[in-house]
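Q: Two folds, back to back.
A: First:
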Amino acid sequence: MEHPLYFQGDTRLQGANRCFGCGRANPSGLQLEFLLAADGSVVCLPVVPDTFEGHPGYLHGGIIATLLDEIMSKSVRARGFTAMTRHMEVEYVRPVPSGAPLRIEGRVTHNEGRKHWAEARILSPKGIELARAKGLFIEVRAR
């Protein structure tokens, strides 16, 4: 069973997060919501509006990369770590439509100290892979 992904003390719950991807306090952002799946992966089910298009009818490549980065970051966060992207590789497999339902999945594949490797993919409603990514995230610890 899936349930909303929120964390104790998460500023998103307080409405103060201005993150472009997930921040409720950013009216120009994507305002993505995430679900934690039973297997520990993270899922997002957005319909990204045409205001984020590149070519008419399709999302801009930078927005596609943002979606993949966000889901990987939340996958690391779901394991209790706050981390920032160090490196990310994106493969644009097929055009990603705007204004259509999407499924974005992310999971952590490996951890080593402060390093966390993750992978993600964007799927069409029929389960066709549209884009995929892998990334390295470095844990940010309080000073």
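A: Second:
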Amino acid sequence: MKLNLDLAVPSSQEWLDAVMSDFNAFLQDHADCERKASAMAMSFVAKYPDRIEILPELIETGIEELEHFQQVYELMEERGIRLQHSIGKDPYLDALLKLCHSGRQERFMDRLLIASIVETRGAERFKMVAEALNEEKLKKFYKTLWVSEAKHGHIFVKMALQYFEKEKVYKRLEWWVEQESKILEALEIRPALH
């Protein structure tokens, strides 16, 4: 059973250059993304309380993402960077969510697979950031995050396989990977995780 996924296109050097040229803005966006990731895991718990097989992992993921937020916030505090007043829309995530099926069952699978792709893209980008950083503390932090996000990418595929046929999951996942690559290539490059 394959739990990891291969992204169709790699993130660009231009994206990494944008992040490294305004790392403070990247940290602000990163903090927002961790808050949203925690909320997303907990929204699965709220919307699908009958899916008892995956509730413990969802709760654990929500807590872990909130801990990541706390760690990013501490880095921001050290640098005198404030949280943004409001969390802005994420054009990447919005574009993915617009492609979701509307039926309860189909939407549930789509949301799990989107979560897998978003976490996998996050892992790829955190790895790029870790390798580009010179400051040892930051480098170590982003390496830890890259490993964690990769794990989360696997968890959401595993969750989908709990409830849907393997062939259906992998076929739909393949479709999502293709859609994600189109969305990524059309996005404006900015110092943000997505």
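Q: And?
A: DSSP finds seven helices and no strands in the chain.
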